């Protein structure tokens, strides 16, 4: 069984794009019927949170949404794949998670500062969260994942990572890029790297502009 490629669009925020390679299972999680084309399938989700937070829940808690899947590929609604999903899975090698490294910042603390400066998220919540990370010894300049594209094997350790990441989002800032590397560090997980930057790579493209 191949990987499940999935995304989530709530409140009509993004326009779903077609992948270049269609031989895979593609699932769009949404809160209303969308005008989607094959290979995308729709799955309606009962909203538990505001749209942005609901999207983060779907991103983090993939093992609950697809309990029978062995491997999943998450991408944001403004991303489309330009390569066979199996090429992304191959990038895992002997690792259980693969991510894109941010090519403009290399530090969760700098990302948090940018979120505050650009008014993306509650500044007090972000400041408290980052102060806790400092108290726990999380290092500066530890790299920064661009969390719009994630490949995961559904192993027990990745389930633990997913749940820790969601707890940070649920109890802290919805800006999930400030917490993903902390969670990997906390659990001693070394990710594989998907080549590319915040807008494009050999396997994907991403619309420009400031995404929420």
Structure description:
With 212 residues, this protein is of the alpha/beta class. It has one domain: Spore Coat Polysaccharide Biosynthesis Protein SpsA, Chain A. It has helices at residues 51-60, 62-65, 85-90, 108-117, 123-135, 156-171, 180-187, and strands at residues 4-9, 25-30, 40-44, 71-75, 79-81, 97-101, 145-153, 192-194, 200-201, 204-206. The strands form 2 sheets. Strands 3-2-1-4-7-6-8 form a 7-stranded mixed beta sheet.
- Beta-strand portion reads 15-25%
Number of extended strands: 10
Tell me the name of the CATH class: Alpha Beta
Number of contiguous helices: 7
Cα-based radius of gyration, to the nearest Å: 16 Å
Helix-and-strand structural type:
alpha/beta
User: Could you describe the largest sheet, including whether it forms a barrel?
Assistant: 7 strands, mixed
Descriptive keywords:
212 residues; alpha/beta; Spore Coat Polysaccharide Biosynthesis Protein SpsA, Chain A; seven-stranded mixed sheet; three-stranded antiparallel sheet; 7 helices; globular
Concise overview:
By secondary structure, the protein is of the alpha/beta class. The protein has helices spanning 51-60, 62-65, 85-90, 108-117, 123-135, 156-171, 180-187, and strands at residues 4-9, 25-30, 40-44, 71-75, 79-81, 97-101, 145-153, 192-194, 200-201, 204-206. The strands form 2 sheets. It has a 7-stranded mixed beta sheet with strand order 3-2-1-4-7-6-8. Strands 5-10-9 form a 3-stranded antiparallel beta sheet, with no helix packed on it.
């Amino acid at each position: 069984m191949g990987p499940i490629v999935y995304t989530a669009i709530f409140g009509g925020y993004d326009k779903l794009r077609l992948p270049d390679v269609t031989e895979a299972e593609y699932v769009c999680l949404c809160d209303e019927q969308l005008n989607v084309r094959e290979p995308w399938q729709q799955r309606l989700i009962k909203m538990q949170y505001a749209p942005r937070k609901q999207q983060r829940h779907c991103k983090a808690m993939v093992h609950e949404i697809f309990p029978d899947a062995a491997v999943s590929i998450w991408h944001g609604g403004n991303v489309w794949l330009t390569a066979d999903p199996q090429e992304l899975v191959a990038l895992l090698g002997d690792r259980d998670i693969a991510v894109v490294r941010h090519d403009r910042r290399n530090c969760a603390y700098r990302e948090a500062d940018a979120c505050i400066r650009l008014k993306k998220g509650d500044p007090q919540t972000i400041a408290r969260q980052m102060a806790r990370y400092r108290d726990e010894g999380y290092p500066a300049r530890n790299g920064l994942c661009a969390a719009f594209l994630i490949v995961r094997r559904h192993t027990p350790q990745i389930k633990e990572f997913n749940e820790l990441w969601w707890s940070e989002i649920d109890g802290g800032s919805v800006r999930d890029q400030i917490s993903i590397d902390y969670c990997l560090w906390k659990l001693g997980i070394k990710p594989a790297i998907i080549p590319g930057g915040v807008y494009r790579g050999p396997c994907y493209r991403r619309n420009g502009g400031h995404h929420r």
